[in-house]
């Protein structure tokens, strides 16, 4: 089996669908695919759209409803306080893959829901990890991520060492399950340093430092612009504000992505996004 995990809430159902469909369209082993979908607040209509991946391509789907779990509540409360407020708790679900997936699964590929897979995923999934806990691509703006304001405010990481993006990770779950993320932080860092952490990406990089296998950046080409199409990337990662489902952005393979999501879901998702924004504006105006 090719075990793949995604984490998302109902606001990201269509990008998650596009990511899953891209995997299915570009693999030779669709019936070996098993998607583990860690989700919150997923509506019946949106779940049905995701379930079509199984009927259309023969992949297996394992829905894991985090609303019925204490993972995003009690477990996150155990973590030291972090100042940043940008992301919702669902972002932490990656830290608990070892707990949430079947104990018999030894390897899983984690994909963010803003990725577009363009090459057979088995090319990545079947690599020799050479004893590493995680295989990933370096973060392009890693120096700022590592050191912060004026490249001098943080001491938890060394700018001389690799720092990896957590949006595409091939994970050895045996080593992952053995990691106590809370202890890795509180036993080695002062609270003032932990408060500056960038959520789970910093946590994973710190906890598994020296235990990464570096991948070619074509396996996680981040913030891709049209000129990057010439690199023929294996996986595109639309991790900046420019997203392929936004009408006026310039990103690589934008037209292809719209048809990947399908026209029907693309425009449905656009309408839903505008409705959410309108409701938010109305609440702010009251």
UniProtKB/TrEMBL annotation:
- Keywords tagged on the record: Glycosyltransferase, Metal-binding, Transferase
Q: Which Gene Ontology terms cover its molecular function?
A: glycosyltransferase activity; metal ion binding
- What name does the UniProt record give this protein? Lipopolysaccharide biosynthesis protein, LPS:glycosyltransferase
Please give the organism.
Answer: Devosia limi DSM 17137
**InterPro entries given for it?**
Glyco_trans_8, Glycosyltrans_8_dom-fam, Nucleotide-diphossugar_trans
What Gene3D superfamilies has UniProt attached to this entry? Answer: Spore Coat Polysaccharide Biosynthesis Protein SpsA, Chain A (3.90.550.10)
| Species classification | Bacteria, Pseudomonadati, Pseudomonadota, Alphaproteobacteria, Hyphomicrobiales
- Domain of life, per the record? Bacteria
Q: Which CDD domains match?
A: GT8_A4GalT_like
